[in-house]
Structure formats: C-alpha cells, structure tokens
Amino acid sequence: MLLERYLESLGSRAIAEALDLDGPRPALIRPTQDAKFGDFQINGAMPLAKELKKPPRELAQPIAEALAGIDAIEKAEVAGPGFVNIHLAPAWIALKLTDALRDGERDGVPAVEDVSKIVVDFSSPNIAKQMHVGHLRSTIIGGAIARILSFMGHKVIRDNHIGDWGTQFGLLIVGMREWGDETALQSDPIAELERVYKLASERAGKDEDFAGRARVELAKLQSGDERNLALWKHFVEVSRVSLDALYAELDVSFDLWLGESAYHDALPGIVDDLLERGIAREDDGAVCIFWGETDGAPKSLRKQKTPFIIRKKDGAFLYSTTDIATVQHRKRQLHADRALYVVDNRQSLHFQQLFAVMSLLDTDMELEHIGFGTVLGKDGKPLRTRDVSGEVITLASLLEEAKERARQRIDEGIAEGRLRVQPEEIDEVSRQVGIGAVKYADLRQNRLSDYQFDWDKMISFQGNAGPYLQYAYARCSSIFAKGGLDMDAISLSATITLDAPAEQTLGKQLLRFADVVYQAGATSQPHLICEHIYELARAFNGFYAACPVLDADGPTRQSRLGLTALTARQIRRGLGLVGIGVVDRM
RNA sequence: GCACCCGUAGCUCAGCUGGAUAGAGCGCCGGACUUCGAAUCCGUAGGUCGAAGGUUCGAAUCCUUCCGGGUGUGCCA
Which single residue of A236, A397, A489, A543 could bond A502 by disulfide (Cβ 3.0 to 4.6 Å)? Predict the structure, then answer.
C-alpha cells in the first residue's frame, strides 16, 4: 500500500475536523528522522499558525486528538514547536504486511490509476564505435527507469535510438574498400568497423581527395544507391549481433530499435516547415533557429547567442533535425504521452533547445531529459576510455573484469570455508555478483552526481555495495533451504506479527516499499530503490542476529518465516527493478 | 560572454517538494562466531553543510552576491 499517501489523507482530514476548517489542508506528512519521535510526523499545524492566529502547539493538540482511535495509529502526540508525532500500531503494520505477503503478483505495490504511454530513450550507441564506460550509465539507468515505470503499470516503450546514419558511413564505405577485413567483421564487427573508421577519418584529415570520395559515397547512400545501401545494411546487421550480446549480458532489452536512419525521409519536410512558420531562417548558408529573435522562446534560451542548427550549409541534416522527427514520430505514430531521454548531462543544452522547438511546434507531449553525471576515474578526472597502452577499455571488457574479480573473491571465500557455492554454480554467481556490483555502484548514487569508478570499493563485498544486498537475499533463501520449507507456501499461510524491536524495525522498512517505488518512478531516480533495499537488508541483518527463525516456536516461527519471505521477495523485486539479479547461494 | 552542474566527516556519497540534535559506507579504534551463513552484527571517535547576506516561527535545502571545481556553447552525435 501507499503508506504516506494514506497517512496524508488521514492527517489532512484530521486537521480539517479538529480545527473546524472549511476544507482539507496539507498534513505535510514526513518520516521522522529519529525513531524516538515515532514513525511519521505531521508538520501541517505550523503553517496554519499565522492564518488562524494561534500558537502552533495549540493547533497541534486537537489534531493529535482527532487521530486517536484510528486503527493504524497507536499514538499521536504533540512535540517540539508544533509537530504531531505519529506512532504506527504494530498490529496494523503486521496486517498490512500479511496482505503484501499474500500478493505474489505485486508485493503490495498498487498499479497506477492514470496509465501513461512513456517512451524511454536510452543507451543509443553509435554503430561504428565500441560501447565504452560512457555508455554504461545510460544503458543501466535507462533500463532501471523503464522497469520501474513498467512495474508501476505504465505502458513503456524502450527505444534504442542508435547512431546508424550520418557522416561516418561515407568514411566507412570508402575505408572498408581500402582496409576492410570481412573475417574480422564477422567475428568482432564493431571492433573492425571502428578500426577502419579510425584509419579512414585519419586519412580524410590529410587527404582531400579521400575525404571527397567519402562525401560522394555518403551522398549516394543517402539518396538510395543500392550498393551502398546494401553495404550499410551489412554494417548495421553485424553490429547488431555484438550489441545484442552485450545487452544480454547486462539483462537489458528494447521494444524498438529506431535509429537515426529511420527518420531520414522526414527531415526535409521538417526544415521546410520550420522555415515556413518563420521559426527558422537561413544564416551563412545554414538553417538556424535563433532564440533571441524567436517569439515564445523560453527565457532561459533568450540570451543564447548561438543558434540551433537544423541544416548545414552543405545541405546535410544534423541530429537536431533527426531528434525533431523522432519526437513527432513518437507522438503521431506511437501516441506517446511522455518521452524520457536518458542522456549525459553534457547534452542538456541540446535537449533544452529540442524541447523548445517542440513546444513552438505545439507538440503536446511531456519531454524530459534524464541527465546523469560523468564517470570519473580514481583520480577524480573523467575516466579514460583507453588504458595506459592506448587500448580502448570497452564495456564488454569491463564486464569481463567484473566477473573475473567476483570469481576471485568467491574462490577465496570457498578456500577459507566461508562461502557455499557449488562448483557448477560458480559461473552464474560470479556473473550476478560481478555485474550486479558494477550496476549497483552506479545506480546507488543520485544520477546527477559525477560518479567515481573504483573497482576496490565496488567488489569490496562490504557495506553499502551490491554483494551486501545479494548476501542478505541468500541468507533468507538459506533459512528456507535449511528448514526444508517452501517460500511460496509460507507466503500463502503465514501470519505476520511484530513483537521484538528488530521485527518492528524490519516491518516498518518493509511497509515503505510501495512509496519508494512510486517516488523513484515519479522522479526517475533509481537510487531511491537502491537506498531502500540497502536499509531493508540492514534491518534484516539486524533481525537475523536478534531473532531466531527456525528455532522459534509456533506462531512466532510462522511470523518470522513470513517476514523472511517478504524480505526476500522485496529484495528480489527491488533489485530486479534496477536490473540486478540475486542468487540463492553465494 | 552566456547557460547548466557541483562544493556536506580523512575518502566515496545520501539528505536539498524548508522542519527537531545533518546521515550512511569505507578507513580508524573497541567488542560479538559451541546457536538459522562473521561477505554479518553491536559500539566509539570524526562536520563553522565553500563564504557572506536575505526570506521564514524554522535554512544543508529557497533567493542574491562572491570564491573554488567541472561541463556545454554555428555547421560531430
């Protein structure tokens, strides 16, 4: 259930009744920051003090009294300058947790009432270039956001807007003729394309004739030349194979792969339209939108002197033009209500301008740039995509290293007798732990922050890191395995009660899950879920140390098994929502 | 020049829809394995929240200015 929403409605009703107001006022429910103040506080009395000309504590008192007798609330009392502190009734919490335990489909998280159709645009690699660390964030943050929104009940369309069209293909066509190796192209397509692209772009820099030939081939491709089109298709198809392998490793999938090439035909019309409407004009041969002279341009852009260019002076279109066409397609053909762009912060100006254009074109769609910070190395500087020898650190090699490091730690653990991984499970456990650690290290932080990439912290296996959460899950599983019990069967039969302090702490944490999911979805902040699951794992580990489960008797044993099952499911669900897997033994 | 982001414990980071004594992890120091897994748990120490003003009953959070760091910014994406 959505706990805060429920308490907010109780609180605002209590305020209206207690103070005899004409309508409800916001209760301003907030979790307390210290358990001694109870579980939640109502802050709504204080802002009313001025309006009603009474001291806030005097207003808070009747509000607290009005809340007495509600079964969710054990105690409501006035404190400090005028807070109303709410202590939830353990019996009521236990009832709600038992409901969630029965709800195997949704773990107590209600589906949204207003369903939106939301395009999540993420990952978007360039065909001729290897994915490197820089692409990691968009891919996993975007994947997490898509899962969260989808679980909430929205219609989500994951679109991989790949860079499969543009100047690099002229160079590639000429370059492949010169240096291409078809065998290499089959075995590691992107590496081969990138190798050739690099050679070609170097050569084009100093060989005007070569560059000219590349432009000719590009023009031929873009005007539909069959041979070049076939070559281009070939490049795209082989690249797709290695991209698919990487996405499988990351457990990310897409509903659509509409790259830049998909919009090629729509581009001339867009430029004409913007010219006709007087939004764009020609300048120095290029078609531009100047914000200072455009009526209806947002204030933040008015001082922007440099224009938004939608057609180069040589007549070629840019990603700005393609992006406009993409939004129109999403609105007209996909009938989307919203589109989220999970793209590096450094492109925020581009999106600000794109969204301004769409607003000038009266496109009725909610567009949002979900930005994120840069990946930094241990030295605090942007992480190099090449190592000391100049080799590119690809995303694929990074994931390999993560698995390798995880495996080393597992081998050590087995040798020391601490871990219980069966030989046949080592591969899978290394994969889940290694890749989970990489994802968690990234996702646990506010996405806007730059993020420092540090192997040692990531695979530390201690404290707030991926393996900590997976370990808590394995502990839950292990209780059921040891007791010869089935988690699903317990979920259907157990009744949760909350007595011991550790049970209450755990129970209260479990009860917040739905709120967290909703907030993460509303703000596109997967780290809220990570934080919740971390706190949950902590609460569970505390419970584990203080409360025997299998050795408890009768109803207590049943209740504790129920708490363990619900914890396990919530960890699995929560990690699943951010794209991280769990294993039963590790 | 203009725009955006950032500055919180030794380090890495939460908190920033304004709410009580600013929180975690790592690291440091000290405890807990004859008891469901010690990749765990419990505890100690550690902060003028970059600075100064302002708004407010109340500011790490909102506003202004300044200092320091980063990013973007006419024909790449």
Answer: A543
Strand B positions with any atom < 7 Å from protein CB?
1-6, 12-16, 19-27, 35-42, 57-58, 70-77
Residues of chain A with CATH 1.10.730.10: 395-577
Q: Residues of A from 144 to 203 whose C-beta is within 7 A of strand B: which are they?
A: 163, 166-167
Q: Is the CB of A408 under 7 A from strand B?
A: no
- The model's pLDDT over A371-390, given as tens digits with 9 standing for 90+, comes to 999 888 777 777 766 655 55
Convert the pLDDT of each residue in A91-140 to its tens digit.
999 999 999 999 999 999 999 999 999 999 999 998 877 888 778 899 99
Once rounded to an integer, what is the mean pLDDT over residues A236-251?
91
Percentage of chain A beyond pLDDT 90 is: 69
- Window A72-111, strand B contacts by Cβ < 7 Å: 79-81, 83, 85
In which residue ranges of chain A is CATH 3.30.1360.70 found? 3-88
What b/e sequence results for A80-89 when a residue is b if at least 16 CB atoms lie within 10 Å of its CB, and e otherwise?
eebbbbbbbb
- Return the CATH number of the domain spanning residue range A395-577: 1.10.730.10
Would the Cβ of A259 be found within 7 angstroms of any atom in strand B? Answer: no
pLDDT at A389: 55
Separation between the CA of A429 and the C1’ of B69 (whole angstroms): 40
Q: What ipTM was predicted for this assembly?
A: 0.95
Residue A413, CB, less than 7 Å from strand B? yes
CATH superfamily of A3-88: Arginyl tRNA synthetase N-terminal domain (3.30.1360.70)
**How do beta strands A155-159 and A117-121 pair?**
parallel
Q: Which helix (H) or strand (E) holds A40?
A: strand A40-42
Q: Which residues contact A406 (CB under 8 A, 6 or more apart)?
A: A429, A430, A431, A433, A434, A437, A459
